[in-house]
Amino acid sequence: MRGPAVVVRCRDASSPWLREIRAGMEEEGVPVLVEEVSEGDAVALAFAAARLSSLDVGVGVADSVCVHHAKRPSGSPVLTGPLGRARVLGHNAARLVVGIPLK
Amino acid sequence: MALVAGVDIGNSTTEACVAEIGPGGRVEYLAGALTPTSGVKGTADNVPGVVDVVRRALSSAGRRVSDLSAVLVNEATPVISGLAMETITETIVTESTMIGHNPDTPGGAGLGVGETVAFGSLRDCAPGTKVICAVGAGVDFEDAAAGINAAVARGVEVAGAIVHADDATLIANRLDVPIPVVDEVTLVEKVPLGMPAAVEVAEPGRTVRTLSNSYGIATVFDLDAEQTRMIAPVARALVGNRSAVVVRTPSGDVTDRRIPAGSLTLIGEQARRTIGIDAGAAEIMAALRRVRPLSDATGEPGTHVGGMLARVRDTMSELTGTAVGSVRIQDVLAVDTFVPQAVTGALAGEFALENAVALAAMVRTSRGPMRLLAEELRAALGVEVLIGGVEADMAVLGALTTPGTGRPVAILDLGGGSTDAAVAGDGVVRSVHLAGAGDLVTKLIDSELGLDNRELAEDIKKYPLAKAESFFHVRMEDGTARFFDEPLPAEAFARVVVLGDAGMRPVPTRHNLEKIRQVRRSAKHKVFVVNALRALEQVAPGGNLRQIGFVVVLGGSALDFEIPDLIAEAVAGMGIVCGTGNVRGTEGPRNAVATGLVASHALAVSLETAG
């Protein structure tokens, strides 16, 4: 059994961008759970992560960062952005859970 | 049988009504149409719009232009209104500053007081000193937390922190001793160092209590009565924030001053009064009542008021070809409002809501250009064109075709630039044209919410609000939910949105739905309810509203989803039946003047045949 958390799926669990995504979510006070998987692009990773998340929100990290919601169509993520925006995208993934406007 | 078309050229729309007039003046209404007015009302530029609307009304009645025996046009005296707004208070901060901040994520909670010190100098602080640490750009949250923890371990009392980046919670979470942390302070490097300061962060869902209270600040900084008076505007500016910082220098001097905003001279037929704009709307309107009827108004040159009145005069003189000196301001409406203004002397670009007065002014002219308009129209359509009676008389006649009305009836025509009223008693129609209508409401909404976007303000005025609660549904302002098949865009998520005809539009402010709704309703109240009462009072027999039996609300703003209700509520106590018109039982609040023109023409025809 897992507690409530936003699920982050990434290709490389040692990626320095994960710290930024975690920081963004911690700032908003939302728990996070990281999983490493072997394949998929950011959108596919994010959608699978969102389906796994008890909070319906997932983040995919590959060449870019994608934020997805389990109730949205798989090909229509909430947001995608470059790795350099990992902190902001972390904030926004958490904000989807908290229910405050995205930044 | 004669086929006629009544045409009403309004400030924003041109309306037509096609009817057949039978023997004895019996009227059979066939169709109506509406189109945007081309050019300024009452000028020859209106011709293309009139031709278009007549053709459209005819085609929906299945007739041709050649069947027409006459086109009846209203006596369209152009009404021009202008708007100006003047700020009348200003908050100035000198030798002392405040940073009022309301980001979504401050860290920690409580009140911390100490001397400001830069993060880099924290290691030089002697044990036992009480400090507020200012963390500038580029410092990582882990380093910031480690630095503060090290200082605390040495015995330095770090009471609070001010941070540049958005990571207050991250820092607070890594501290051994919890302190309040305010983040997203973009100008953190401007915080004066070595000065007494206080940082306050409220628990989630609460607002600061100490720094938003003058006596709270006085307690923190040990101020005397005179100094407390000076700091009062700072406390006021921080009300409602979840976090705040106040930095004080020993010779602090914060003032709240009244700006001389220019004066307005109201010239009545018998009396004249000069009143300062900074006296406020109530005083200006009271002065107006004392000099009524107004024959002109002038503003002090070099002020906004002076400039606006001059602009209205210039535009009018250009349109009508009359000399600037002979253009008269016929009415003004003053409204108290608020404008967000940058606090003078503040360091972090803070804004405070300053008092302001908005003024609408109106000019009315002669029917000069109407003959030219009629001639060009005659040439364009090849049909006889008759200039009909006074607009107010026609509107009353048209309004009376609303099912359920009777005399004595009053009409309120709520337009974009002016509010018109007329009362038909025993054969005579009395009417007034007042300044202030839809455009002023839009301007008030725009400035009070600090939108700086007229188009968005217009949408907020016209359509109900909702809050996007998920990607697939919104909660309307009345509490009902509405669902969508397609996911809503990310920028609408958790925001207040306006549900217009063209779709959903996010309102990019921090204001919540209730605040936006309240600003919208109060702007409508300040303009339309005030003007409705003012107008009815001037046309009612003996100035007594109770003498009016029926009020029919007409015009574009009568289609608004709440203005007619606000007015009905305001006059309900006087035993008046008030509602939105439904001209000919089919046209709603539109087409009253066009219909009135036809009715009046039919009456004239029947009198002729009888005589």
UniProtKB/TrEMBL annotation, chain A:
Record-linked InterPro entries: B12-dep_deHydtase_bsu (IPR010254), Dehydtase/Dehydtase_re (IPR003208)
Top-rank lineage group of the source organism: Bacteria
Gene3D superfamilies: B12-dependent dehydatase associated subunit (3.40.50.10150)
The name this protein goes by in its record: Dehydratase medium subunit
From TrEMBL, chain B:
Source domain of life: Bacteria
Domain DD-reactivating factor swiveling: 93-254
Matching InterPro entries: ATPase_NBD (IPR043129), DDR_dom (IPR030994), DDR_swiveling (IPR040916), DDRA (IPR009191), DDRA_swiveling_dom_sf (IPR028975), NA-bd_OB-fold (IPR012340)
Pfam families recorded: DDR (PF08841), DDR_swiveling (PF18427)
Domain called Diol dehydratase reactivase ATPase-like: residue spans: 275-600
NCBIfam families attached to this UniProt entry: reactive_PduG (TIGR04491)
Name of the molecule in the record: Diol dehydratase reactivase alpha subunit
Native source organism of the sequence: Amycolatopsis thermophila
